[in-house]
Structures are given as structure tokens and as C-alpha cells.
UniProtKB/TrEMBL annotation:
Transmembrane segments: none annotated. Residues 358-613 form the EAL domain. SMART domains: EAL, GAF, GGDEF. Residues 219-350 form the GGDEF domain. This is Uncharacterized protein.
Amino acid sequence: MKFTLEKDIAMNDFLLGKATVPALLAAMDALTLEQDFQIFFKKAATSVCKLLNADGAALILLDERREFFEYHLFEGAQEERLNPFKGMRFPANEGIAGRALKLKSSIYVRDYSQDMDAMPDLIKGGLAANFVIPLISSDQVIGVLASSWFSEPADVIPPQIFLLAERIASQIAVACHREQLEKQLRSLVSIDPLTQLNNRHGIMQFLDQKADQLARHNRSFALFFIDLDGLKTANDQWGHEVGDNILRDAANRLRDVVRKSDCIGRLGGDEFLIIAECDEHSLAILATRFIQALRIHFGKGRKRGRISASVGIAFSPVDGTEPNTLLRKADAAMYSAKKEGGDRFNFASRIATSESEKSISAVDIENALDSDEICLWYQPIISLRNKHVIGYESLVRWQKADGQLVGALPIIKAIESARGDLEIRFGNWILQKSAQQISEWKTQDFFHDIHINISARHFLHPSFLQELHKIHTQYADACHSLIVEITESAMLDDMERARRIILRCQELGVRVAADDFGTGYSSLTYLKYLPLNSLKIDRSFVTDLPHNQVDRDIVSGIVSIAHALNLLVVAEGAENDDQLESLRALGCDQLQGYVISQPMPLEQVMPWHNLYKTRSNNYFERTNAKLAAIPKHA
């Protein structure tokens, strides 16, 4: 008997060493490396099946009200026998899954047909045995993982094997819960809380999709940029509650007249955008329909008023294919319609483009670099703890010989559309110029960080690290004050490569920040996997922050996640004190925006900084004096 027990233990140890541990490790690796939940589940479920020698594994999740179970994903050798049950729903108190939910513990049924909770449909489907593990995250069951056998299991399964299967299931629960939270976050990010239409982020995502469809399948589409006439007057005379009711009414009216294939969103304020797939002959018909729907009469007696709409139309590909270009042209056409009295529409193709709006070519930028006409302007970034300036973001400008100043947007567009290495050359120029400026400031006892924007292509290009090495050799101290801002696309295109580059940056003393966080995929996975130093919350979440609970919840969530990962949070785009105080209350660490200062040329930085410092000191002196004057027992 003793020999048999030792033999069983040895066999169990063998299984644990040779089969189960590698399978478990594979599942753990899947969780940390895979961004796609379905790919992760495939790997993790395969590991469970190998552990148990099962024929398949199913992910069965509770609905939002926790009233029903629903089969979601399947994996295993008998997948064709499991697939018919995909989408199957049953009450949360039924079946072995219901029993596992109630007990919050795993249940192994060796003879499924004899179990009191067996479901007839599954018996007919050939299910012989199953092992149901509750998926628990944050102390709440979100579903079950059901491992299935379609013939009686040949061997007795050791308890250690069940325990390891439960360990993998716990990782599936965490990943599944994370996937659900990300879906909720993406939903919050895309919906306007007042009108329940797509918000700016949501409608712009749809616009990107339409642009992609045009490029792939030559499917034309139109943008209808709509601005309400008279809403400001209504707000001023009768209050914002009336204005909000008008906006809701306008949204509902537009819902009633758009086609099922059209997409409608609120850009902000009283501006709406409708994206419609159509031909050029339908533009006037659709625009007329929208204008008629938005002739809104409201109020009674002396409080009676009327709202109308001005509509600008951009048609792609005639007016361009790039989303921002189309939006700008539709906006210009709308403004033209409004100047003509409103309650009408105008076509972008009929609006003359001014000389200053003409596109700048890549050749122009190359010549400007050669002529030393490209320069950097600086916008301060403060600590929200004490309002001290801690750094500046460098922003590119073109100071032409004739005195005209060109902003960043047309320059960046020209560079992005250029062939060859202009984007790399330009990025390296910014790196060198910023490092040189940091070094010069330090000789003047002016110790501040400089944030620079690096494109996705440049960041992943070999010359980026080569240039950093040169800077480290030439301006060693400067690297510790340099912060490189990159967008999510640069990191998600090649996660492993991005990770290596970030680590090398940090070895050289350069910090890395995720820029425009919240406007892209915003995956929690890459924040966990990449060794970032900080992230910048996009300005779209800051604009309505004091009055928008959804934006506050989103910012609060981003701050909590970032701080849990030891990341600093910088909010950009703050324009007033209400936004500043809201961001400080929500726990943001740093702030950038017009409420502190607009971008300024280099020669103004020192004078501005000294003036700001004086004003800040006076403010704190007055505050301390007031505090000192308060009786101690008051």
C-alpha cells in the first residue's frame, strides 16, 4: 500500500513537472502579452484542456443584470460539437453553472447525464462530463469556465490538476473583467451624455472608417457640418436648461430624418456632424431635409423663439480624402452659410480657399529647415500641487522671411505626406534643438524639462536611438530633462520594439510619455506592459469637465489607473480656472493650457517665467497672511 501511494505521488509530481506547469506558464504568458482577448482565451483554454485532457472549454458569462448565462467563446478538439451552443442563454440559477455561481466554488461532474442539474439540450449534444469553474474578479462572479468531455474521462484527475486549472481560470477572469471594463470605457468615451449621440471622439472614429472605405472600395461619402442658429440667444435670454432641451430636441429630430446607414454625432456646443454615404446628386436633398427638421419653435408668449440651422457640406473624394481636411472644409462652408443669414446650406467646393489656407508642401519645409526659418515655441506645464512651472512643451513654428508665422498643423501635414526621410530629419532636428536649449538654460540656472512630440514612424526608426546617443554624448545633462511624447499608434504598431526603445531611452535618462491618451485604443494592456513615465489626457476630456459627469468619471478612472501603475498624469487643453480646479480635485499631477499661458517664442520664456513666479509668490504670501490672521480656535 505504501509503495502504491509513493507511486501515485511520483506520478502526480511527474505530471506537475512535465505537463501542467508548462501549460500553466503558457496561459500566464498569454495574459501578459496578448492584447486581443479572443487570442488570449484560445491560449488559456487550450492550456486548461491539456491539463484536464478535456475535449473543449467554453466561456459562459453573466449578462449585465446577472439574470442569464450566455455561451460566448469555445476552444478545443470538439469545437464543432460546442459551436451549436454559441449564443445559448439560460437562467443564472439553472444548470451546473448556476450551482457553481451560488456556491462560488468549482464543480466536477464525471457523469453529466445523471446530475440533477443536467440540461437536456447538452445531454442530447453528447456532453458526458464537465468541470465548471466560477470566474471571480473583484470578489464577484462574472461567469464560468466549463471544461467538457464527450466521452467518460479515462483517468482519475488528481486534485493538483484541478487546482492548476482553477489558477488559469482566475487569470481568464481577470482578463475577461478587464475586457468588459475597456468596453465600458470605450462606450463612455464615444457617447455624448446630453444627446446620447456620438460625441466628437465617436463621430471622428466613424469618419476615419469612411475614409478607409473610400481608399479601399472607392465609396464616396459626405460630411454635413451643422450649426444651430439662435441657440446662444436662447441660452442668454432663457437659461442653459432651455438650451439643453433644444439640443436634445435637435438631436432627436436629426435621428428621425437620417438614414440607417448614416452616422450622426455632436461635435460640441451647438455643432453636429452627419456622415452619409451618398452620391453628389443627393447632397442638396439630404441637406434640405436636415434644415427643415431643425426649424424648431420653442416656448410660449414672450418666451417664444425659433431655431434654425446652417449647414456646410464637404464631399469626398472631390473635396479631399483626409478626415481633418474634410472637416475643416465643411466647417468653412457652414460658416459661409451662417454669414449669409443662416437657415441654408453651402458646398465646400464653392468656397474660395484663402491664400493662407493653401497647403504647404514638403519642399517648402525642407527649404525652411535649410534657411533656418523653422523654430520652436514653448508652452509651460505646471504642477497642480503648488502651481510651480516644471517644464515646457516645444511646439514647431515656421517664421517666414516676410514675417508671416505658420502654425504646427500645416507643417506636420506636409511632413506626414512627404516621401523620403523628411519626417526623420525633422524629428532629429527637434531632438537636437531641444537638447541644445536645455543645455543653454542650465548655464543660466534655468532648470526645466522640455517635452517634445515624436512621430510614430520616427520613434520606431533606427535613427531615433542613434540621435539620442549623439545627444547623450554631446549634452549628457540635457537627457535627464528631456521628455519624449509618443502617441498610442507608435506603441501599438510594434509593442515589443516600442518596449525596447523606451527602456533604452530611460537608460540614457530620457523619459517617455503617452500623448493624447483616450483618443485611440486606450488599452490598459499597453500601459501595463510598457515602462512609461507619464501619460497626457487628451484635451477633449477637459473642455466640458466642470459640467460633464461622464468626463469627470473618465478622467478619474484614467488618473486611478495611471497612479496604480506609478505614472504621472498631465492634462492638456485647460482654458479656465474651473477646469484647472476640477483636474486638481480629480488627482491630476500636472497641467498645460491657455489658463496658464499660450505658446510663446523663446525670447519671451524667461521674462514670462519671472513674471509668473512673482505673481505666484504674491498669491501664496496673501494666502498665508490670510491664514495667519484667522484665530487659532476659530
